[in-house]
Write a structure and sequence with these properties.
Strand order of the largest sheet: 2-1-11-10-9
Largest sheet: 5 strands, antiparallel
Strand content: 15-25%
Shape: globular
Distance between the termini: 10 Å
CATH topology: Beta-lactamase
Helix content: 25-40%
CATH class: Alpha Beta
Number of domains: 1
Number of strands: 11
CATH architecture: 3-Layer(aba) Sandwich
CATH superfamily: DD-peptidase/beta-lactamase superfamily
Radius of gyration: 18 Å
Number of helices: 8
Length: 304
Amino acid sequence: MTRGLFAALIVPLVLSGCSLGGDSGSTASPPAVSRQLAPAPPSSPASVALEGDDAFDVHFKLRPPRAGIVFDLASGDVLWRRRPLEHRAIASLTKVMTALVVATTTRPHDLVRIHADALRYTGRSVGVLKRGKQVRVEALLNAALITSANDAAIALAHDVGGSIRGFARLMNERARVLGLSCSHFVSPHGAEKANRSCAADLAALTRLAMAERRIARIVRIPYTQIPAQVRGKRLYLATTNPLLAAGYKGTIGLKTGYTSEAGRCLIAVVRHGRRTLGAVLLDSPNPGEQAKRLLEAGFRAPSH
């Protein structure tokens, strides 16, 4: 069995004392948060050891995903992998890194002024953002993670990084200090093929994202509403995560992606009892069904 132990991942600029994710009941005053991304401590690289045998084998009805990994979020044990270090286009799985940068450099109630670039997008979108209007960070983060809105991701990137290029530099710096050697970003949304990573890096990002309360709260929501940019109206957001949309028991995250270059991609996180497993599938013919089979096999495998 592969015993791939991820090193501990520490989120810089932890927002202790803040009301994270809009939770009610907190009376502590939030600290000032720098918009400059502090490097993660050198003792917290994201890494995975991939030697040894898998804990289980799965036979797929269709072809298997081009690359993938199944892992235990708590221990970092790798239970199954297929081409885990192969560099591939990752489409909107990019938004996991986008969310990490945003969540560690903003507060939920911060306001984002919509830049003209947010109106120039392809693919999925909120579609009602108005240039010059101000929108709460958390509303845009909900749109980017739940319904995979590219315009929301662009708006967040401009606010935090000053431009798409500036934000991509922050993403790549975060990847560098975490030791994510497969990963390179040129945009906050992944609509183009230049954003690339590998299953092992995305597994490390998943552990880090699920440790961030603001992100973990959002990615488990199947359906929500946020204020629209039209007075008195609200915008309905439905998840793109097939496991979450279907009510698959224990699903608590995380993100989908699709382009013709990347194929259908999915990061799924499921909790059964005290055990939480994640699955990363890159270019899968049926990511929802394949994730279920892999995760079910993972939960049957003995834990150590």
